[in-house]
Amino acid sequence: MKIAIVILNWNGKKLLEQFLPSVIEFSKEADIYLADNASTDGSVPFVKATYPAIKIIQNKENGGYAKGYNEALKHINADVFCLLNSDVEVTKNWLPPIIETFKKEVNTAIIQPKLLDYKKKDHFEYAGAAGGFIDKYGYPYCRGRIFNTIEKDSGQYDDHAEIFWASGACFFIRSAAFKQLNGLDEYFFAHMEEIDLCWRAKNMGHAIKYVSQSEVYHVGGATLSGSNPKKTYLNFRNSLFALVKNAKGFLFPLIFIRLILDGMAGIKFLLELKPKHTIAIVKAHVGFYNNLKRLLKQRKSITNKIKYYQRTSIVVDYFVNNKTNYKSL
What we know:
Layout: E1 3-9, H1 13-26, E2 30-37, H2 43-50, E3 55-59, H3 64-73, E4 80-84, E5 88-90, H4 96-104, E6 108-117, E7 132-134, E8 140-142, E9 145-146, E10 149-150, E11 160-162, E12 170-174, H5 175-180, H6 193-203, E13 207-218, H7 229-246, H8 251-271, H9 275-290, H10 292-301, H11 314-320
Parallel strand pairs: 1-2, 1-4, 2-3, 6-13
Antiparallel strand pairs: 4-12, 5-13, 6-12, 7-8, 9-10, 11-13
Helix pairs in contact: 6-7, 7-8, 7-9, 7-10, 8-9
């Protein structure tokens, strides 16, 4: 099985200096690629000089996560792509459990390893933890992370489990499935595009798995931190994009309730003296309305829509019923 590890980079030379050594050391089973989004910080010359074995694909512009990977993966021949963030430290023997799962489970198209926090290594990491899910209204949560509550890793998710979405921080996908799904949706630019891709994969009958025997450590927020209103904008807008495109059932009441919940989040940001995040949510809704016609057209093209949620509202579970970890749900 031919594995291609593809690291998307945009002006991340310092991250590459820090994290490439672990990828080189512990990834003998794979070919390693750097997909560069028109960096200007010397990233490409550094990799060429320091790691000549790494293959480099230079994109013409910074098209974000989605377009950056779509363009780069066109040039790579492999059975499985690993989309790996530049701020991830991998560990010894992280690849064999993934490869074995793909070999044994022909219907499994996407896999996520255990995602731990680089800065606090006995805790899960926000971006994916032990595998992701969404509620009825499209809000994501993870085994090991609900909103901003992060669980300590005490072995509670040392398993092999079916999940709904895998984190884009370390995302394995069969190349055939990636092509069948026409890749990532470039309108997302960054954030939530992996959830949309996984949702489309689920609607087409593919399985998505979490494999705990493979562990990686993720810094998180290295490109866009959680305190940045742009991240709030992208997360709220793109979550609505994915919901309209992929959700089963009558759309109007679903979106209506979701918009109300978003409004409550905006009020919460105001009370926390974070008005820029409230404005970001308003802008996200404007962006959503501006794209609604296109989204409805995309929705019509997805003929098979499965039930996608286990919880009706993770917002109510967390903020009202005080259920702050996955096993309490």
